[in-house]
């Protein structure tokens, strides 16, 4: 699944709401993506930091391939629409791509890239559903980020975004979830930039 997901991520410019068809089925499968981050240069708030993004964990209720709706007063799984990969995997990959262009870190990589790193990001998705009973309907995503590294005090950032749906359908829900993931990442980056940095340790003087 990871290799297939990585291939999709590398496709590049995909529409904000991408649906794929699998052979032998009429069930459309969607890909979760964060909206493009604004172009920015690396800032003084995070000098020369490299970030490794660990796989996201996700509450069991939201970790499958089905959409989760709140409809007619109860949570329901959608048998007609689904995800092309597990939501936690897609969110982690989308976060790597988004954070790499956010200007907050010098380099961002997945856990399976064995390059040196100064910081580690873990995240837990605690909510990922759409309420079709609400007026207007709303898609909600909640993520707890945990950032650690030698140059900083560990940082926990709780984020949540609730985005209105243009219509009560799958395409609108995916666009809203994409927007919500983007807002969660923006909140995380704001918290990182506000985090006091430990002073860099000067290299030891050479012995004479």
Descriptive key words:
disordered C terminus; 33% strand; disordered N terminus; alpha/beta; 208 residues; Rossmann fold; 10-stranded mixed sheet
Detailed description of the structure:
The N and C termini lie far apart (56 Å). The longest helix is centred in the C-terminal third of the chain and has 25 residues, at 170-194. This protein is elongated. It has a single domain (2-8, 48-194), classed as 3-Layer(aba) Sandwich (Rossmann fold), CATH 3.40.50.10610. It has three helices and ten strands. Helix 1 (2-9) packs parallel to helix 2 and helix 2 crosses helix 3 (170-194). Strands 1, 2, 3, 4, 5, 6, 7, 8, 9 and 10 form a ten-stranded mixed β-sheet that branches. The chain is α/β, with parallel strands linked by helices.
